[in-house]
Specification:
The structure holds two protein chains of two kinds. Helix content of chain A is 83%, strand content 0%. By secondary structure, chain A is mainly α. Chain A has a domain of 167 residues. Chain A is flat, with a radius of gyration of 30 Å. Chain B is built from five helices and no strands. By secondary structure, chain B is mostly helical. About 15% of the residues of chain B have low confidence. The chains are: A mainly alpha, B mainly alpha. Chains A and B meet through helix 1, helix 2, helix 3, helix 5 and helix 7 of A and helix 2, helix 3, helix 4 and helix 5 of B.
Chain lengths: 279, 140
């Protein structure tokens, strides 16, 4: 007797349903994996974290304001406890917000190549590490509190720190960032201008559009000189500030100078594009 | 003369001659997978199950996994086709006349243009968050 032919039991609706569900889930998984967006960069992630912490801070602040009002209104032990919990959470959230702000600053520092100014990058990261350590100690103080009366003095200390030392150190980091970015872009400019300069010389030799190309060369030279001059000036101003701190006015003066360098560098973009069009 | 008309000794000689010819003809081909045999083995295993529902489920799961694997392989292939080579900075400038070098320079100019356009004031980008630290529970 020949063996029975294998027959799939088509009468089972559960099996058919299971099959379609399986195929659907596999297809869905496949397309979700295939079309998943590119993972965010470290800078984008830091920005998202900061935004998230900021929204949490706003929630904590609202709860603190409500709890404070309730405490003044009712003056009960429960209201006092609620005020303590809300205030503690509010202060903790302030610290967390500033810690993520430090991470965001760090990612801006890491977002470009500092070239010759790398020692300032290292100093800036060291400043940020110190700030994070100080904020963590504040966080520990807040976590250790058990009564409402303990919180206002800590809040006052934190305010003094954030408005004083933290702000000055942050200014120093910003001034380094300003100069570092300008310097890094100038390096890119020099590298690209060197390549394009050879192309221009080649075109001049072959006799094509001489006047335009000669003007191009002179413009590039101007940009290089002006940018370098502005960066040198900014570096001089930066060296006049303290080792790890800068005043608001000092930072503004440095920014005004780096702005000059950056606007010069921005002039180079259409000039480079023009050469590409010609060649 | 047909092959059936050969004697047993002649048939043996013929069998020995044929593989020698093919072996010397060219490079060895990769071992072939006998799908019919694999299918037969799989069917034999499936016949071992008495309940047809289980057999159905095993087959359906197998088909599903197969479809998923094929789609995954296709995706990998597409990605390989789509992925462009990474831009690499060249130390020495290429010959200005070459099309490839012009394209390379154009790409560098584009990257530079984006960087220059993104230049901004860090004081604006990294403004310190304004927080409420006037914590006071004294009577107003």
């Amino acid at each position: 007797m020949p063996p029975k032919p294998f027959i799939v039991n088509g009468k089972s609706p559960v099996a058919i349903l299971f099959f379609f569900l399986l195929i659907y889930s596999l297809l869905a998984m496949h397309y979700s994996l295939a079309q998943s967006p590119t993972p965010p960069s470290a800078l984008e992630k830091a920005q998202n974290d900061y935004n998230f912490q900021y929204s949490k801070y706003r929630d904590a602040q609202e709860k603190y304001i409500t709890a404070r009002s309730s405490y003044f209104l009712f003056k009960t032990a429960t209201a006092k406890n609620d005020a303590f919990v809300a205030t503690k959470n509010h202060l903790d959230q302030v610290v967390k917000l500033y810690v993520t702000f430090g991470y965001l600053t760090r990612e801006y520092i890491n977002s470009f190549n500092w070239g010759n100014f790398n020692d300032q990058k290292i100093k800036s990261i060291s400043i940020l590490d110190n700030q994070t350590a100080t904020l963590t100690s504040f966080q520990q103080q807040i976590a250790a509190t058990i009564t409402l009366e303990q919180l206002p003095p800590i809040a006052a200390d934190l305010k003094t720190y954030l408005e004083g030392e933290f702000a000055s150190k942050h200014n120093k980091v910003l001034s380094s960032l300003e100069i570092g970015e300008a310097e890094s872009t100038l390096d890119d400019f020099n590298s690209l201008a060197g390549v394009l300069d050879q192309v221009v010389v080649f075109k001049l030799r072959s006799g094509g559009t001489k006047s335009i190309l000669a003007n191009w060369t002179s413009e590039i030279k101007n940009i290089r000189v002006n940018t370098q001059k502005a960066i040198t000036e900014a570096k001089n101003l930066n060296s006049q500030t303290r080792q790890d701190q800068a005043k608001e006015g000092e930072l503004d003066a440095i920014i005004r100078t780096t702005e000059k360098a950056k606007s010069e560098l921005k002039r180079s973009k259409p000039l480079f594009e023009e050469v590409i069009r010609i060649i | 003369m047909k092959e059936e008309e050969f004697g047993p000794i002649e048939q043996e000689i013929t069998k020995e001659e044929i593989p020698q010819k093919t072996a010397g003809a060219g490079p060895k081909s990769p071992p072939k997978i006998n799908f019919a045999k694999i299918l037969q083995v799989a069917l034999n295993i499936l016949k071992g199950f008495r309940r047809p529902k289980i057999v159905t489920l095993i087959i359906l799961v197998g088909i599903g996994v197969l479809v998923f694997l094929v789609l995954s392989l296709l995706t990998v292939k597409e990605e390989r086709e789509v992925t462009k080579p990474q831009f690499q900075e060249t130390k020495t400038p290429p010959s200005p006349t070459s099309d490839a070098s012009v394209a390379n320079i154009a790409q560098r100019v584009e990257t530079y243009g984006k960087k220059v356009a993104a230049l901004d004031n860090f004081k604006k980008k990294l403004t310190k968050p304004i927080v409420d630290l006037e914590i006071d529970f004294e009577e107003e």
